[in-house]
């Protein structure tokens, strides 16, 4: 009798997955306060199109590859009826692999400058720069060009939570990093923090966004802004502040604990 146990499979993304990836991304972050501020009128068709265009890796010269790294886009497929049944894409991850250290000139030249061409009409570029731009700058200044695997985005469909899709995508990355003897780096959202800690990521720095003071937005009841995250490193999260955490997973030696 064939098994009907549902399972998750991770594979490389294809262009045919674009619509699913775009949908999952904006659905996953729809109730995130910073995403709402970055897209104050909701994600426009222009923003969705631009995201779909920039999420996939583009051809690079050897010089560009050495500076920018190798982009790896994966999806997680959910098979509710087992491996021989139908499946759906329920999550995706975008990684950047730097196999070799970069020169100081290379990594210091990195600068995150959001544009309408990248983010589409209706996006608030000032908020994007203050949030995503600052996260990128903090990560850059801590990494200092080290060879590493960077997780840029991880998103899971809100209707398909707790199936293990997000964990499967993270495990794919940490397994790759371990096989290459490289550390792994990321910037954690409030809700992703516990998952990353489970996989051995350690706190490096925080970005505390003064949401209430800067934009006049008060946290809604039931929302989580990272109040319990990285407290040992950075102290309690002040009221009206959303905390993101810069994290790094050290190289795992063969036979070491996860």
UniProtKB/TrEMBL annotation:
Output the SUPFAM superfamilies linked to this UniProt entry. Answer: Acyl-CoA N-acyltransferases (Nat)
PANTHER family, alphabetized: ACETYLTRANSFERASE, GNAT FAMILY FAMILY (AFU_ORTHOLOGUE AFUA_8G05690), GNAT FAMILY ACETYLTRANSFERASE
Q: Species lineage, top-down?
A: Eukaryota, Fungi, Dikarya, Ascomycota, Pezizomycotina
Q: Domain of life here?
A: Eukaryota
**Under what name is this protein listed?**
N-acetyltransferase domain-containing protein
Alphabetized InterPro entries for the sequence:
Acyl_CoA_acyltransferase (IPR016181), Trichothecene_AcTrans (IPR052523)
């Amino acid at each position: 009798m064939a098994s009907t146990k549902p399972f998750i499979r991770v594979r490389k993304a294809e262009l045919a997955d674009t619509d699913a990836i775009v949908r999952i991304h904006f659905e996953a972050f729809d109730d995130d306060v910073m995403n709402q501020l970055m897209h104050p009128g909701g994600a426009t068709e222009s923003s969705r199109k631009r995201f779909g265009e920039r999420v996939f890796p583009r051809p690079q010269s050897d010089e560009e590859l050495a500076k920018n790294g190798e982009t790896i886009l994966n999806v997680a497929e959910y098979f509710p009826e087992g491996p021989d049944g139908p499946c759906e894409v329920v999550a995706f991850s975008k990684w950047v692999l730097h196999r070799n250290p970069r020169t100081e000139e290379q990594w210091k030249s990195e600068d995150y400058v959001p544009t309408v061409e990248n983010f589409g009409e209706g996006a608030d570029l000032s908020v994007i720069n203050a949030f995503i731009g600052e996260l990128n700058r903090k990560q850059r200044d801590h990494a200092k060009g080290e060879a590493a695997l960077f997780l840029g985005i991880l998103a899971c469909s809100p209707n398909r939570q707790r199936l293990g899709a997000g964990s499967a995508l993270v495990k794919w990355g940490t397994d790759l990093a371990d096989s290459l003897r490289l550390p792994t780096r990321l910037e954690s959202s409030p809700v992703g923090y516990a998952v990353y800690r489970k996989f051995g990521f350690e706190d490096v720095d925080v970005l505390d966004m003064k949401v209430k003071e800067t934009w006049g937005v008060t946290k809604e009841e039931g929302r989580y802004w990272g109040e319990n995250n990285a407290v040992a490193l950075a102290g309690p999260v002040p009221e009206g502040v959303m905390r993101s955490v810069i994290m790094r997973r050290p190289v795992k030696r063969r036979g070491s604990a996860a």
